[in-house]
Amino acid sequence: MHSESVLPDQRTSPPSSPISILYIGANFGTSRHRAQALRRLGHDVFIIDPHSFLPKNQLAGLWTWKTGGLFLGDFIRRRVLATIPHQQFDLVLVNGGELVGPSFVRELKRRFGPVVSYQNDDPFGGRDGRRSRLYLQALREYDLAVVVRDCNVMEARTRGARNVMRVFMSGDELEHAPREITREDREKWSSEVLFIGTWMPERGPFMARLLELGVPLSIYGNRWDRAAEWPLLRQAWRGPGLESEEVYARAIQCAKVCLGLLSKENRDMTTQRSFEIPLLGSVLCAERTPEHTALYEENLEAVFWSTPEECAEKCTQLLKAAGMREQLAANGRRRCLQNGTTNEPTMENVVRKAMIMEKSPIMNIRSA
């Protein structure tokens, strides 16, 4: 078995030769961003979204969550295989994989060769119910399992993964590039301290405490009305999650300070916001973790805190110092690009690793 970690300052080597990639994953959100990054790198990418074969309602998602896609594995396998064009692919990349079972992976390997899994969530934790059942069953079939948490490396091995590669989550060079902000944007989206994200049990008390400490908070996200603290939080809630990528980007750019909260059940040390906020040119104010402090120099490239009281103090200081905010934002964006925690170098590292493994007799023996 083999594992590899992409360190904060590691940059990808020169681009590999263009290859053809069958990309099986959601054609929206960060999954689509990764597929687009592969295309920008010069690869020929054909996307099939397994979710597109399911009914467009909440019941399908709830079924996957509660049962782990019971009875869906063979259905999705047949539909996807029937959609694949009659051509040869050099690599198959499965993003997520909650609808891809072991027999499906074996069939893909028989037809095309190496199959890689990229997993952005925490399938080994307990947050997402049985959603990852098929992924976990198929894990030992993948030639390379890519994960974004250190704790997942050994867990993937224990579940039978042959080769494991750890990378950071990553923002996108284009989707998270700063926009030109108009006066209308400022009028609509300006905020003092912004958080965009779904309610989770630990987030309610934290946000309520910030409000009690006088932080001028704005929240966009779903399910916040479930919080026990909702009577207090209602004043800060501005609306549901920002699904539009353009709206999301402009809201972040128009905020003076952007909070980065972790999901405790997801065992986060960083989140997508840890990279998207600096890339968009805003100030990241996030929970202090070993990974955050390795990625950004504290108080120069990002601001960190360990308690709501420290967070409130940092926010108050930042709101009074426009020059400091501008410098932090510029430094944070520069460092994020320097770290290579964007989609293009991240996906190029994944492709290069997979293709090197495919050509290596030693790795092929290990994967036999």
What labels would you give this structure?
about 375 residues, alpha/beta, Rossmann fold, 2 domains, 16 helices, 13 strands, disordered C terminus
Write up this protein.
This protein has two domains: 2-168 and 342-366, Glycogen Phosphorylase B (Rossmann fold), CATH 3.40.50; 183-339, Rossmann fold, CATH 3.40.50.2000. The protein contains 16 helices and 13 strands. Strand 6, helix 6 (150-158) and strand 7 form a beta-alpha-beta unit. Residues 1-10 and 361-368 have low confidence and may be disordered. 42% of the residues lie in helices and 16% in strands.
Task: Give the helices and strands as they follow along the chain.
Answer: EEHEHHEHEHEHEHEHEHEHEHEHEHHHH
Radius of gyration: 21 Å
Tally of individual domains? 2
Structural class: alpha/beta
CATH architecture classification of the largest domain? 3-Layer(aba) Sandwich
Per CATH, the superfamily of the largest domain is Glycogen Phosphorylase B
Strand content of the residues, in percent?
15-25%
First CA to last CA: what distance? 11 Å
CATH topology of the largest domain: Rossmann fold
Question: What is the CATH domain class of the largest domain?
Answer: Alpha Beta
**pLDDT < 50 stretches:** 1-10, 361-368
Strand count, sense and barrel status of the largest sheet are: 7 strands, parallel
Q: How much helical structure, as a percent, in the residues?
A: 40-55%
Report strand order across the widest sheet.
1-7-6-5-4-2-3
For the secondary structure, the number of strands is 13
The DSSP helix count reads 16
The shape, in one word, is globular
What does the average pLDDT come to?
90
